[in-house]
């Protein structure tokens, strides 16, 4: 089918071939549908042609086709993969204007993408919107993990720890990805700021030294011990799927 042929072009990054197939469909009077255009959007995103994907998204109504949630999420991810986080936020605004309800994947992608672009404050603002707006989906473990990673990437370790504590205070368990971020990115920054105490509730009970004074003090050997213990921490929830 035409849709399958377009999809095959995407696998091989032959975006020009995908356009030729679309032209052939139109020339032969073959109607396109939202699946056709979503497949084309995916082709352009794979080829990192985020501007072309944005243009096709805008042009879909001229074909008599209204973009759906998949259309917007595909283009949004395309913008984020090319570090165009501001354009991704514009895609979110367009969704809301068109009454397309963003799902948790939309918001998780935005938090992850803005984090990769080192926009940690924007990541936290998006998380805050999810947490305090009844019309948005509830944040999940992937949401918090992405926000923690965003803060850690920008050396905002206090913010990262606050998010971790918030997640645990709500009665949730961390997954291995979240713990990996803490061990590999957050705790090294804490070591460099050794005048700070490690909050007790950051360290899992299984990782606390028997007879300790309740805090890991500023000495570097205590920090190193905390790191080793956290690296061996295995009592975590299973990893979530990356598309969330």
UniProtKB/TrEMBL annotation:
<feature type="repeat" description="PPR">
    <location>
        <begin position="140"/>
        <end position="174"/>
    </location>
</feature>
<dbReference type="Pfam" id="PF13041">
    <property type="entry name" value="PPR_2"/>
</dbReference>
<feature type="repeat" description="PPR">
    <location>
        <begin position="1"/>
        <end position="32"/>
    </location>
</feature>
<dbReference type="InterPro" id="IPR011990">
    <property type="entry name" value="TPR-like_helical_dom_sf"/>
</dbReference>
<dbReference type="Pfam" id="PF01535">
    <property type="entry name" value="PPR"/>
</dbReference>
<feature type="repeat" description="PPR">
    <location>
        <begin position="68"/>
        <end position="102"/>
    </location>
</feature>
<dbReference type="InterPro" id="IPR002885">
    <property type="entry name" value="PPR_rpt"/>
</dbReference>
<keyword id="KW-0677">Repeat</keyword>
<feature type="repeat" description="PPR">
    <location>
        <begin position="103"/>
        <end position="137"/>
    </location>
</feature>
<feature type="repeat" description="PPR">
    <location>
        <begin position="33"/>
        <end position="67"/>
    </location>
</feature>
<protein>
    <recommendedName>
        <fullName>Pentacotripeptide-repeat region of PRORP domain-containing protein</fullName>
    </recommendedName>
</protein>
């Amino acid at each position: 089918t035409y849709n399958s042929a377009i999809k095959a072009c995407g696998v091989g990054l032959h975006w020009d071939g995908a356009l030729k197939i679309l032209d052939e469909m139109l020339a032969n009077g073959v109607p396109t549908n939202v699946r056709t255009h979503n497949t084309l959007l995916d082709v352009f995103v794979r080829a990192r042609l985020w501007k072309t994907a944005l243009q096709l998204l805008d042009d879909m109504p001229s074909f008599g086709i209204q973009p759906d949630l998949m259309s917007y999420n595909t283009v949004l991810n395309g913008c984020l993969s090319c570090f165009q986080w501001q354009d991704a936020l514009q895609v979110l605004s367009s969704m809301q204007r068109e009454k397309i309800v963003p799902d948790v994947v939309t918001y998780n992608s935005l938090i992850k993408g803005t984090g990769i672009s080192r926009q940690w404050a924007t990541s936290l603002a998006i998380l805050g919107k999810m947490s305090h707006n009844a019309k948005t989906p509830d944040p999940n473990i992937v949401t918090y993990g992405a926000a923690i990673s965003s803060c850690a990437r920008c050396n905002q370790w206090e913010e990262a720890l606050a998010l971790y504590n918030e997640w645990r205070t709500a009665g949730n368990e961390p997954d291995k990805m979240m713990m990996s971020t803490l061990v590999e990115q957050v705790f090294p920054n804490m070591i460099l700021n050794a005048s700070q105490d490690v909050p007790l509730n950051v360290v899992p009970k299984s990782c606390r030294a028997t007879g300790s004074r309740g805090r890991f003090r500023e000495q570097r050997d205590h920090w190193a011990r905390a790191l080793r213990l956290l690296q061996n921490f295995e009592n975590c929830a299973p990893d979530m799927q990356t598309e969330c």
